[in-house]
Amino acid sequence: MTELRKVEAAPGPLAVGDRFTGQTSILFHDFIGESRVTEADPGRLLEEEVVIGARFVSRWTVSPVADGGGGSTVRHTIDVEFPSGPFSPIERWVLKRRLLRMQKTTMAKLARRF
Description:
Elements: E1 4-8, E2 19-26, E3 29-41, E4 45-51, E5 55-64, E6 72-81, H1 88-113
Antiparallel strand pairs: 1-2, 2-3, 3-4, 4-5, 5-6
């Protein structure tokens, strides 16, 4: 993800139950967060529960392109548990915009890499 500044994780493929920490900068704030892998199928699926300023589930899926040309389709979804309270409408609006921009930038960088 584009906002990540540092990730501390054990080497090798991730497995269900693995945890790792990261540092990020979002909306002029620095956060230390933690992720826990909830689903993992190497080369096909990675889902993690992330707590970094807000709680959300990040899910990456990779599937072969149907035309048999050897390519893959990568999908990324984010399911956010938005904050509540008197400022929640503003926070929701800001978080939705920020997460969408982060997701688009990350996918564009991934596409350029391959």
